[in-house]
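Figure 2 data, in text form.
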Amino acid sequence: QEEKIFAGKVLRVQVCTMEGAEWLEEVPEDTTVEKLKERCLKHCVPGSLEDPKTLTHHKLIHATSEKVLTDTKTVLEENIQDRDVLLLIKKRAPPPLPKMADVSAEEKRKQEQKAPDKEAILKATANLPSRSADRSVAHHSMRDFQTELRKILVSLIEVAQKLLALNPDAVELFKKANAMLDEDEEDRVDEIALRQLTEMGFPESRAVKALRLNHMSVTQAMEWLIEHADDPSVDAPLPGQTPAEATAEAGASSAEATAGPSSEEGGEEAKDELTEIFKKIRRKREFRPDPRAVIALMEMGFDEKEVVDALRVNNNQQNAACEWLLGDRKPSPEDLDKGIDTNSPLFQAILENPVVQLGLTNPKTLLAFEDMLENPLNSTQWMNDPETGPVMLQISRIFQTLNRT
């Protein structure tokens, strides 16, 4: 009677085999899976337990969860319920080990398909005639184009300023065109993304930094904030970022520069005002290095000023900037401010083009030149602009034409 009182609960489970046999097993919940499997084998394969390996070559699977039951666990531990269905199946035999001959043949086949190394290539091409044009020359030609384009832009900016200064309405035109500079996209922060991060508990200044570093992606910014939570420099301003004092100073000079002349002032004062506007444009279009590239290069041990110079010379391209820092560092940052020879056939051909001539009288073209000069990555934006795109297309065509002759 005591055994009946303290005995475990008896479960009725349905067992099936791959051959289609089905029966009901009554098993106490404290029975191990191995014991249950032994009972099942006795029921469906009489005499099979004479071979001790038969037990290990079979397994029980819970039909609903598709889980293989562990032999050492009890029915209760495997969470088997009354009326559950179990499958008794034979384990698959492990695949036979490959023969040595097959292994050798497979290795030989892989070796035949392997790409040749440098020595094999040099040996196979030793008798071929050498070519003067190679990848390094093509890369050098592309670098020359970028360098020459900067020189062209520097000289065209001077021409455009002189032409626009002759226009009596130049000051008013630049007041309207200059409004574009006051809405710089890089200074904007997605308010919705910022609110999401601040609602999570992140400080606003830190959230703004994270969003700018991660191109306004909330997910990436959140990962960055979590990763740098204990970083002592997490609240430091981004490298190359304009301090608040400089921004305020620029705003003050902007107000002075855009203030219109009084009725008593003559043409000389208007010209001075236009000069101040040109200075303001250059100040607001200062080069802005890619913050991620700056951090990555500074972590390699380079000084921040050297890194900014390298990115400026190489159009914010991190790999090219790294090569510049490790190489002869040519061209230098000072070379970027030099214009092209105004008597050269290239510059004369550019100035004689009617599309370029018309574009130089448009204040927006001057703004585009200034922007591309200091932020080369923005060139795509101006190439697609209906007003400045045709001018840039003509400059590129003229350069390519003369470069081939």
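Caption note: The longest strand covers residues 10-17.
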